[in-house]
Amino acid sequence: MKNIYFLGECMVELRSTGESTMHQSFAGDVYNSAVYLKRCFSEVATSVVSAVGKDKLSDKMLERFHGENIDTQFVFRHENKAPGLYLIETDDTGERRFTYWRNDSAARKIVEFLSDDVVEQFASGDMFFFSGISLAVIEQSKRTQFWQKAEQLKNAGVKVVFDPNYRARLWKNEQEAKTEFEKAFRISDVLLPGVEDLAVLYGVETAEGVLEFCKPYGVEEVIVKNGPESVVTSEAGVSQRHDIIPVKNVVDTTSAGDAFDGVYLGARLTGRTVTDAVQLAASAAGIVIQHPGAIAPKAAFLSAMADAGL
Ligand code: ADP
Questions:
Q1: pLDDT at 96 over 90
Q2: pLDDT in tens, 13-25
Q3: Is there a contact between 25 and 295 (Cβ–Cβ < 8 Å)?
Q4: How crowded is residue 170: how many other Cβ atoms within 10 Å of its Cβ?
Q5: DSSP-assigned beta bridge partners for residue 239
Q6: Which helix (H) or strand (E) holds 200?
Q7: Rounded mean pLDDT of the chain?
Q8: What is the largest CA-CA distance in the chain?
Q9: How many A from CA of 110 to the centre of ligand 1?
Q10: CA of 151 to the centre of ligand 1 (A)
Q11: Separation of 281 CA from ligand 1 center, angstroms?
């Protein structure tokens, strides 16, 4: 059985539904990717690597993971921290506003739980995924340790996968993000950048420009996402452009890139070509943006994926 480890943070999501009512769910970039991968490719063992608390909401979060058939043996329980939380409010003009409480979340402590024993278990896996958000969340004092462990996995033959997912507010300044991203670009076997991420940090404005930017790092497989525009890829030095069908009735683009990543990686782990994997991933992302929130209803998602040829 193929297996993949998604390291990062899942948060409690609160969505304002009235004057004093809220709907509560769970989301976070790597978790979203894990959900969509596992929904489409149940044969791939899919683990989230994170830390939560010992509170009731953490219990509920783990139940949700189980409901999505995600392996939780590496979701550690921190003694006195709790999960991060964010609130989505929509103002009078329909613009969404996000407020976060995540500075002291359990997930920030994840590296403390990555003992030699744990890393050894990851080392027999196929892929190890982390994002720019995962990196930002890891405490600064623990990042050197994180890179050592990632290096260990790479040396053991695990494919290292990185999506930059740049969120300015999570970093002290641009330079801090660039320093960590540089290390991620160097170590990665697969990169899944969005044009927007690199535009802000490096002034690269086109998908082809992103491929050029990635070249010096010698990454085996680069997949560049660009909203409704064509996806551009490079595999073993061969570049390709993949047209996608733009969605007309976009409801909420939250987690489009996450769904794309998860389904792309699942497709590759199950032996699809880059071209087929991009088509499935773009279909998944196109379905997700027609539903509100990060996680689309399972039945509707799977039925649309079946129509897309899964
Ligand atoms: P991110 O969510 O990381 O910002 P993008 O906005 O680039 O990522 O979108 C990720 C993927 O989602 C795209 O590569 C594409 O496949 C799909 N996608 C996004 N917006 C649209 C759209 N309007 N129509 C169809 N597909 C879309």
A1: no
A2: 998 888 899 999 9
A3: yes
A4: 17
A5: 234
A6: helix 195-202
A7: 96
A8: 55
A9: 29
A10: 30
A11: 10
Which tens digits make up the pLDDT trace of 53-72? 999 999 999 999 999 999 99
Name 87's bridge partners.
14, 99
Predicted local distance difference test score (pLDDT) of residue 16: 85
CA 250 to ligand 1: nearest atom? 23
Pocket probe mutation, ligand 1, options 224, 258, 260, max atoms within 8 Å of Cβ = 260
Residue 258 annotated among the catalytic residues of the structure: yes
Distance 117 CA to ligand 1 centre (A): 38
CA nearest ligand 1 atom 27, residue:
228
Ligand 1: which atom is nearest the Cα of residue 286?
A: 26
Global pTM value: 0.97
- Alpha-carbon gap, residue 41 to 266, rounded angstroms: 6
Contacts 24+ apart (CB under 8 A), 267-275: 267/40, 267/41, 268/190, 268/221, 269/2, 269/4, 269/41, 269/44, 269/126, 269/127, 270/2, 270/41, 270/43, 270/44, 274/221, 274/223, 274/233, 274/235, 274/240, 275/240, 275/242
Q: Which residue has the higher pLDDT, 158 or 91?
A: 158
DSSP structural state of residue 74 = T
Gap between the Cα atoms of 4 and 146, Å rounded? 17
CA distances in angstroms from 21 to 91, 108, 259, listed in the order given: 15, 29, 28
Torsion of CA 259, 179, 238, 281, to 10 degrees: 0
163-209, pLDDT tens digit by residue? 999 999 999 999 999 999 999 999 999 999 999 999 999 999 999 99
* Ligand 1 pocket mutation pick from 198, 229, 253, 283 by most atoms within 8 angstroms of CB: 253
CA–CA dist 271, 61 (Å, integer): 31
| Pocket lining for ligand 1, CB < 6 angstroms | 194, 196, 225-228, 231, 244, 246-247, 250, 253, 256-257, 260, 282, 285-286, 289
